[in-house]
Design brief:
heterotrimer, A mainly alpha (285), B alpha/beta (410), C mainly alpha (329), B: 410 residues, alpha/beta, D-Maltodextrin-Binding Protein, domain 2, five-stranded mixed sheet, globular, C: 329 residues, mainly alpha, MetI-like fold, 14 helices
């Protein structure tokens, strides 16, 4: 059922719909082809990665490629780095965003509007433009090639504050009042009433922050010197293109591994993610 | 809620501690007299194991404990300068001969240390040692060396009925073999745009060079531009594959039997021998309209960074790392062709490839070290960008070199 | 907060409004400010508000405001990666504008944007319109199309490099079916940019598709049915009912896609290294090369500021133009 079709009286709509569906499936298949090819290649012996005519599957399924990845380069280290950098960065971002989002929505204080406008203005600054000055800054504080340099500079992006503010504005004032009647102060109200309410929004923010850390490439490329010790996944993947010729099957296996976490998150949380994207514009590319 | 928050904070703190703790193990900031860091490019686990052994040999000889800080080759030189300029520079630095000039300002000349330490430099391969000199000063001890060679697929040559290339073969032989390949519907040669490969092939063809013997750049050299045109004629007449944006494409095509031969150095020979599913042969670069050297040689070695606070210890370490014993061990394991003459025999024996010794000796005789230049890093990048257009015939050699010269002038 | 909701507000603030309109499915229960009703609380909460906002504000100031201002300063200085720095005034900008390669990369970036943005929007809007709730298993399709968008771009590039290579999947398929060779995509003047764009669209459209899809779901059925009763074709219904209804979403998506596409780096950097020649070298790669390979941080900062100004300018133009086609409820 294409939106471009016109209503014709004679054709059986069911047949047309079936054909439309078939075309859609073919499009999806073509779209998935690179990913399918990636998985297939990751299971080939290295000598069969380039063949004419092309084959989808090699002469044998070489699962060993997946274990070889871990000995060929410190890939376990890359994963660990990636997870830790993303987890710590996400924790910081979600925490500060929850606090500031609350402050921008439900607390009144001098300068609030000005500060909020400044927050919004920073959203206009492209990350890539910041890379050079950020590097100079890291040089000055001696953070080049450190873990904290991978995490801290991007842990304070303003998007979360905006997202949380938007959410907190929807919480009925009665809940504050009730907490206040119970004798709760601002901090208690925030922790025991607001944070639990905001959990779905916090989760969406957390997932997107995690993913953007996980996928980040330019900054690690710039700031990491000791690749084998401090690289995250994308940088590590790029590192597979070594001096001795590409090990394509291993690179593909590594790519598959690097994609797994985010694909799993996507499949499990797709409803929430869609909502997060739609309400906030998070995760854009 | 509070408890969960506490758990969360604790977990974050633990993660942080783990992260900082683990990764500081190879940090360069805590080098000391008996603990030095060695920065090295590493390709894969067997590579790493071999270098780990080299590092161990230093402390086994009573030297400092050497920790490897590894990076993949592609990133190594992008990062090296930045690293060497900070206070936490690794003391021991691996360097390629063609890049020595590029990094002379951040490395320490080691002639005086060699004299003081009683190191007999004549035991090193002369070409290898000269490659590590910049303006007459020595900046590194070579661990490997070698002229650029052609690796070929013996099966394919037999299949198409071409004569196997002998060391010292000529352009006419090359063309004859290419004709056989073409008749069989095959391509003989995998085009390349890597700086050293390109320059070696052209040097053999007509002696054209873009870096003069004294190390100055000569990008507008007309002979070199003609050499580029020749390479592009090979693509056009079906002798060679089209050059690819991927620097590893030649090796890939060779391994997958798409081409009969490609350019590489002895440092890759044994890796390739194990990878391919056919008997591998080696030969020299064909000589054409030149009577001079027919190929470039290059190697790698270990130097001491200028920032290093413990140069004596660092020199002692690199002395051990390039000692007869260590290089022989490396040769036995089939690593790169040793930079010490006496260790080379072990490598030949281990290589176990027909005629490899005579090929290498012929090639060495016909080779000249590719001199480094302050802009050689940039030149390499420009070749990988612009060389493609020249080799694939989208631009003439002269036009390409003009673009490159324009960028180098910046 | 009034300033934020007016049309004349700062571009960034406007984005927020767009999002709010673009997302009618987020139930907005209480839109007025809570404090407006409780003036008594003002004094008491004053300190807490600043305290709550402090960590984020300080972090943002340190890691966004300071760097962006600092980079403006650095762009007026000769600032090599190693060694001292000196004030050079406009010298960096002069060098930039005198460098023919700089103009080439600006042109390349523009080419990329001009190809990528419309393609991305057409593909994502087309698929979003196709994937109506009547399509069976539409959520599976949505997830499939979204996969490359949230997986590491480096991993996606790696596969495409293998597809594009001579003897790679595309070339090998052509050889064994038609007998001819495919173009040497990544090494060919005419093809390289298209190859980069195609890969980027594949990897990037999923995000806009989701936005459009959700916006289309929110168009009231009554409006669509009314149009259909009038005898409008599906095509007409789309352009006259659905499109205006989702125009704020389209505006928002166009903006974000424009901004991010000006910063394209990873795809050309890893697919072609900017080659052949400088055919696919983009502004961000130029900045990267200048800063981290040629180690001229001052010059690179100047380049970054040029990029920033271009992006600001494009955004401003977008905002001026939006009134003509974006319909807010």
């Amino acid at each position: 059922m294409s939106s471009g079709g016109t209503r014709t009286s004679g054709a059986a709509p069911r047949v047309r719909r079936a054909i439309g569906y078939l075309i859609l499936c073919l499009i999806a298949l073509a779209f998935m082809a690179p990913l399918i090819y990636m998985v297939a290649t990751s299971l080939k012996p290295e000598s069969e990665t380039f063949t004419t005519p092309p084959t989808l599957w090699g002469s044998a399924l070489r699962w060993q490629n997946y274990t070889d990845v871990f000995s060929y380069l410190p890939f376990a280290r890359f994963i660990l780095n990636g997870v830790l950098v993303a987890a710590v960065g996400t924790a910081i971002n979600v925490t500060v965003a929850a606090l500031s989002g609350y402050a921008f929505s439900r607390l009144r204080w001098r300068g609030r509007n000005v500060v909020f406008l400044l927050f919004l203005a920073t959203l206009m600054i492209p990350q890539d433009v910041l890379v050079i000055p950020m590097y100079v800054m890291m040089q000055n504080v001696g953070w080049v090639d450190t873990v904290q340099a991978l995490i801290i500079p991007w842990a304070f992006t303003a998007l979360g504050a905006f997202l949380l503010r938007q959410f907190f504005l929807t919480v009925p004032q009665e809940l504050d009042d009730a907490a206040r009647v119970d004798g709760a102060g601002t901090v208690r109200t925030f922790l025991s009433v607001m944070v639990p309410l905001a959990r779905p929004t916090l989760a969406v923010l957390a997932v997107f922050t995690f993913i953007s850390y996980w996928n980040s490439f330019l900054w690690p490329l710039v700031i990491v010197n000791d690749v084998n010790a401090r690289a995250t996944i994308p940088l590590g993947l790029q590192a597979f293109f070594g001096q001795q010729g590409n090990e394509w099957s291993l690179v593909m296996a590594a790519s598959v591994i690097s994609m797994l976490p985010t694909v799993i998150i996507l499949v499990l949380l797709q409803k929430h993610l869609v909502r997060g994207i739609v309400t906030s514009g998070l995760g854009g590319r | 809620m509070k408890r969960r928050l506490l758990v969360g904070v604790t977990a974050a703190a633990a993660a942080w501690g783990l992260l900082v703790g683990c990764s500081s193990s190879s940090s360069t900031s805590n080098q000391s007299k008996d603990k030095l860091v060695w920065s090295m490019w590493i390709a894969g686990s067997s590579d790493k194991a071999a270098w780990q052994q080299v590092a161990k040999s230093v402390s086994a000889q009573g030297g400092p404990k050497v920790t490897i800080q590894g990076a993949p080759f592609n990133d190594y030189f992008t990062k090296l300068r930045t690293q060497l300029s900070t206070g936490s520079a690794p003391c021991i630095v691996s360097i390629q001969s063609i890049r020595a000039a590029n990094y002379a300002d951040v490395l320490r000349p080691i002639d005086s240390y060699a004299k003081k330490g009683g190191l007999d430099l004549s035991e090193f391969d002369t070409t290898a040692l000269n490659g590590m000199k910049v303006d007459g000063k020595l900046y590194a001890l070579p661990y490997d060396t070698g002229p650029m060679l052609l690796f070929y697929n013996k099966d394919l040559f037999r299949q198409v009925g071409a004569e196997e290339p002998k060391p010292g073969w000529t352009l006419a032989d090359f063309t004859a073999a290419a004709a056989k390949f073409k008749a069989a519907g095959k391509k003989m040669f995998a085009s390349t745009v890597t700086d050293m490969n390109l320059e070696s092939m052209i040097l053999g063809y007509n002696g054209g060079r873009v870096i003069k013997a004294d190390g100055t750049l000569d990008p507008s050299n007309p002979t070199f531009a003609k050499g580029l045109d020749w390479l592009s004629s090979l693509v056009k007449n079906g002798t060679a594959t089209e050059a690819s944006a991927d620097s590893d494409a030649p090796s890939n095509s060779f391994v997958s039997k798409k081409v009969g031969m490609y350019l590489d150095g002895p440092w890759s020979l044994l890796d390739q021998r194990d990878k391919v599913k056919f008997p591998i042969g080696v030969t020299t670069i064909p000589t054409g309209h030149t009577s001079g050297p027919a190929t470039f040689s290059a190697g790698s070695g270990f130097g001491v960074s200028r920032q290093c606070a413990y140069p004596d210890q660092a020199f002692k370490a690199i002395k051990t790392m390039t000692s007869q014993k260590v290089l022989t061990t490396l040769a036995r394991q089939g690593r790169a062709f040793p930079g010490r003459t006496a260790a080379q025999q072990t490598w030949y024996e281990n290589a176990d490839i027909d005629g490899v010794e005579s090929v290498l000796k012929t090639a060495q005789k016909a080779s000249t070290p590719l001199p480094g230049n302050k802009q050689s890093d940039q030149l390499q990048q420009l070749f990988s960008q612009y060389g493609i257009q020249a080799v694939n015939g989208q631009q003439s050699g002269a036009e390409t070199m003009k673009s490159i010269a324009g960028q180098l002038g910046q | 907060m009034r300033a934020v909701t007016t049309e004349q507000a700062a571009p960034a603030a406007q984005e927020v409004v767009t999002v709010e309109v673009a997302a009618p499915d987020t139930a907005v229960a209480v839109d007025e400010e809570p404090d407006a009703r409780r003036p008594a609380e003002v004094g008491r909460r004053s300190w807490w508000g600043a305290a709550f906002a402090a960590p984020h504000s300080i972090g943002l100031a340190l890691f966004t405001v300071v760097p962006i201002v600092a980079s403006l300063v650095v762009s007026f200085m000769n600032w090599p990666m190693i060694g001292g720095h000196t004030w050079t005034g406009l010298e960096n900008y002069r060098r930039l504008f005198d460098d023919p390669v700089f103009w080439v990369v600006v042109r390349n970036t523009a080419e990329y944007v001009i190809l990528y943005v419309p393609l991305n929007l057409v593909v994502s809007l087309g698929l979003a319109a196709w994937l109506t709730p009547r399509i069976r298993h539409r959520h599976i399709f949505r997830v499939l199309f979204f996969i490359p968008t949230i997986t590491p771009l480096v991993a996606n590039v790696v596969v495409w490099r293998m597809l594009y290579q001579p003897d790679g999947l595309i070339d090998a398929t052509l050889q064994s079916t038609l007998g001819g060779h495919a173009p040497n995509f990544l090494a060919d003047d005419t093809w390289a940019m298209f190859a980069v764009v195609a890969m980027s669209v594949w990897a990037g459209f999923g995000y806009n598709m989701l936005i459009f899809s959700a916006a289309l779901d929110a168009v009231p059925d009554s409006q669509i049915e009314a149009a259909q009763l009038d005898g409008a074709s599906a095509w007409r219904t789309f352009w006259h009912v659905k499109f205006p209804a989702i125009s704020p979403s389209i505006f928002f998506a166009t903006m974000m896609t424009l901004i991010t596409s000006f910063q394209v780096f990873t795809q050309p950097f890893l697919l072609t290294k900017g080659g052949p020649g400088t055919e696919t070298e983009t502004l961000v790669q130029y900045i990267y090369n200048t800063g981290f390979q040629n180690q001229q941080l001052g010059l690179a900062s100047a380049g970054a500021w040029v990029l920033f100004v271009i992006i600001l300018g494009i955004t401003a133009v977008q905002f001026l133009g939006q009134k003509r086609w974006v319909h807010y409820e």
